Amino acid sequence: MFSLFRSRKTHMLGLDISSSSVKLLELSYFNSRVQIETYAIASLPDQAVVERKVQDPVQVGETIRLMIEHIQPSTRNTITAVSGASVITRKIQMNASLSPSEMEAQIIVEADQFITIPINEVAIDFEVISPSTEPVKPVADNPKKQDVLLVACRLETVEHLQSALEHGGLSPKIIDVENYAIERAVSLLRPHLNLEAADPLIAVVDIGAALTNLSVLHRDETIYSRDQIFGGKQLTDGIMQHFNISYAAAETAKKKGGLPREVLQPFQQTAQQQINRALQLFYSSTAYRLYSSPRHRHIDYILLTGGSSSTEGLASTLQTHLKTPTSVANPFVIASINDRINRAALDHDAPALMTAFGLAMRGFNNATD
Ligand SMILES: Nc1ncnc2c1ncn2[C@@H]1O[C@H](COP(=O)(O)OP(=O)(O)OP(=O)(O)O)[C@@H](O)[C@H]1O
Ligand SMILES: [Mg+2]
């Protein structure tokens, strides 16, 4: 049938700022198809971001500006995130008949009770959720109470982030929370993973440059998240020592691949020990005891993300030693790829772009065609 309504192509940038780098990804959405248009990854100077919070908005902004100049995306609309560790979340119950302004006033009163810093130094956001985490639609269906998710963060953290984006020439549309971006990306990838369990516990192991994060997801919700000091920098150090070369040359050698076994193996072994320890910590945590049932004793799947998960042979070593199906995340299996992108480079960079992908995808939540 002839359609009177033309679909419009929408573009969105996902911006992921970590302690060591900035990742910028442009996606477009058209006729229910997602396409990767451009992307860039740039290193950050030391101390520009500390503990996943922007300390120096001008330096971070300058890094962003150079990336924009380089990739020239066709939008400046950006979704970025604060780290999960910078926010406090609470589920509260509220009267469903409240108007938005009444809700806002009550939220501030509620937040004041569990936040220890002065309320005028806090950024607060909230979302109405039903038990299924779907937004509650008709109030008549739920006349009395509704669950509301309250998210609070230091105002300064949000302001520094916004200021970095503005210095970089970007227009911040949504400030999300990193965990939510990962949840979104995992839920989109889930049909493409070889999952056998009907209701799996998925461990997302993000191996970055200096940090490794273990997040455990159940039904697309993060039930546990913890950072460990371990990352690809250790392999870079190993390469520097082995070949007696500079840091930059070692990074290049690492990305080129074909490293000798005596350099790769110690790193793989340490990675395996670190991840095993992280999993044991999870198993002994309250989160695990709360969520596990007699049928549900173990992590069913390990999804590796972060730049260092591209290390040769790492996924298979982990799968063998941890006795759990493991794969390296490629968020782009669900997208098409613009011809001007270098496919080989993207294949290596894909697992590091998982958060940026989850962020940009939020821009298409309400996309219609
Ligand atoms: N193709 C590759 N093979 C192996 N390692 C790689 C590859 N590409 C990038 N890396 C490594 O990945 C690391 C960067 O990963 P990522 O971008 O996920 O880290 P980050 O989020 O910036 O750091 P952190 O989380 O520690 O703050 C670096 O150590 C880099 O050398
Ligand atoms: Mg990281």
Offer a concise description of the structure.
The chain is 35% helix and 29% strand.
Intertermini distance = 15 Å
Order of helices and strands: EEEEEHEEHEEHEHEEEHHHHEHEEHH
CATH topology description of the largest domain = Nucleotidyltransferase, domain 5
Percent of sequence in beta strands: 25-35%
Q: Which structural class fits the helix and strand makeup?
A: alpha/beta
Which ligands appear in the coordinates? Answer: adenosine-5'-triphosphate, magnesium ion
Description:
α1 packs parallel to α3 and α5 (233-243) crosses α6 (247-256). Residues 131-136 have low confidence and may be disordered. This protein folds into three domains: 10-82 and 157-182 and 334-362, Nucleotidyltransferase, domain 5 (2-Layer Sandwich); 85-156, Dna Ligase, domain 1, CATH 3.30.1490; 195-324, ATPase, nucleotide binding domain (Nucleotidyltransferase, domain 5), CATH 3.30.420.40. With 369 residues, the protein is an alpha/beta fold. The protein has eleven helices and 16 strands. The chain starts with 9 loop residues before the first strand and ends in a 7-residue tail after the last helix. The strands form four sheets. Strands 10-6-1-2-3-16 form a six-stranded mixed sheet, sandwiched between helices. It has a five-stranded mixed sheet with strand order 13-12-11-14-15, sandwiched between helices.
